[in-house]
Amino acid sequence: MKHIVRAILILSVFALLLSGCYTTGPTEVGVRTKKITFFGLLGEKGVEDKIYQPGSTYIMIPVINDFHTLDIKIQTMEMMGEDHNLLFKTIDGNDISLDVIIRYKIDKEMAPYIIQYVGKNDEEIRDAIVRTICRSRPRDIFGELKTEEFYISEKRERQAEEAKRILNEILNPYGIIVEEVNTKDYGFNPEYTKAIEDRKVADQLAEKYISEALAKEEEYRKKLNDAIGEVNKMIAEADGNYRRSVIEADAYYEQQKRIAEAILAEGIAQAEALRERNRALTGAGGEKLVMLEIARSLQGKRIILLPISGGSVDLKTTDINRLLETYGTLRLSETPTPTPSTPVAPETSTD
């Protein structure tokens, strides 16, 4: 009996020890809770301020201990579909549904605090804290947008970043870190959707008409520019011709002016020369100069002296025969014999 009792006790101890083996996964941390301390012999009662590392096995007496694990990898919570997406009103009063994806993780260093005050496992933490807060605050943040701004991805992303910041301010004290807030599909009520589609069609038509008007305006502007260019070309040609004419006229004027100045200078010189000559002739040597010029003009000429009485030739005292002989002989020696058709008249000289 003693051996049987001993064997039963040993088996009981082994069974108890085997039931007290706890294992943490590769992305899990463990937290121990002491339920019984035997009057302080095993430490203080409650959650132990110690983190049991991932991928390990720990042996604890199950009767007096509890062991909880928390997954520290990034987890995804999707609020999508008709039953789970966010329903709210935009700032301009339109109803909208928005699919939101939250990625978060457990702060490893706060695992004992989470087990003691937030939740005993990942499901409790997700349902009690993460889902509740993440469905509430993003409604207010995305509701700050106008309806038309949901079509602009940059504005949605900006509000998603704002939602992430505010969620971390709320959840970080609970040991939860929000990594990403992403939006996917969004939709409006049917009446508003139809109104949006009608407006898109109207906007497309308006854009079409505006484009056509701009094209026509551009065409007219081109024609106007071409006309202005042609007019400017004509003006430039006219200006060029005018300037060329002015230059040619100025050149001709300068040429004629120089010619006139030369003629004037020559005339002045000639007048001055004549003036000097006249002045010379009216002087003391003028008479001698005249006589000299007369002598030069009579040089080489035969002079016949005739008796003059009372202002006329005195034929009574003149030997006419001798005169005619002399004059005729002189003319025959100087003038060739004329042809019968061209008679030569006799010359007479007078003093």
Could you explain the architecture of this structure?
With 351 residues, the chain is α+β, with helices and mostly antiparallel strands. It has a domain at 75-194: Tetrahydropterin Synthase, Chain A. The protein is 53% helix and 17% strand. It contains seven helices and eleven strands. Strands 6, 7, 8 and 9 form a four-stranded antiparallel sheet that branches. A three-stranded antiparallel sheet has the order 3-2-5. Helix 3 packs across helix 4 (153-171). The longest helix has 92 residues, at 190-281. It is rod-shaped and about 225 Å long. The termini are far apart.
Describe the secondary structure blueprint for this structure.
Blueprint: H1 2-19, E1 21-23, E2 28-34, E3 46-47, E4 57-59, E5 65-71, E6 75-79, E7 86-89, E8 95-106, H2 111-117, H3 122-142, H4 153-171, E9 176-188, H5 190-281, H6 286-298, E10 308-309, E11 312-313, H7 320-334
Antiparallel strand pairs: 1-4, 2-3, 2-5, 6-8, 7-8, 8-9, 10-11
Helix pairs in contact: 3-4
Count of DSSP strands = 11
Name of the level-1 CATH class of the domain at 75-194: Alpha Beta
Name of the CATH architecture of the domain at 75-194: 2-Layer Sandwich
Give the helix level as a range of percent.
40-55%
State the order of secondary-structure elements, H for helix, E for strand. Answer: HEEEEEEEEHHHEHHEEH
Radius of gyration: 70 Å
**Major pleated sheet:** 4 strands, antiparallel
Q: Return residue spans where pLDDT drops below 50 for at least 5 consecutive residues.
A: 13-19, 340-351
Shape from CA axes?
Answer: rod-shaped
- Tell me the distance between the termini: 211 Å
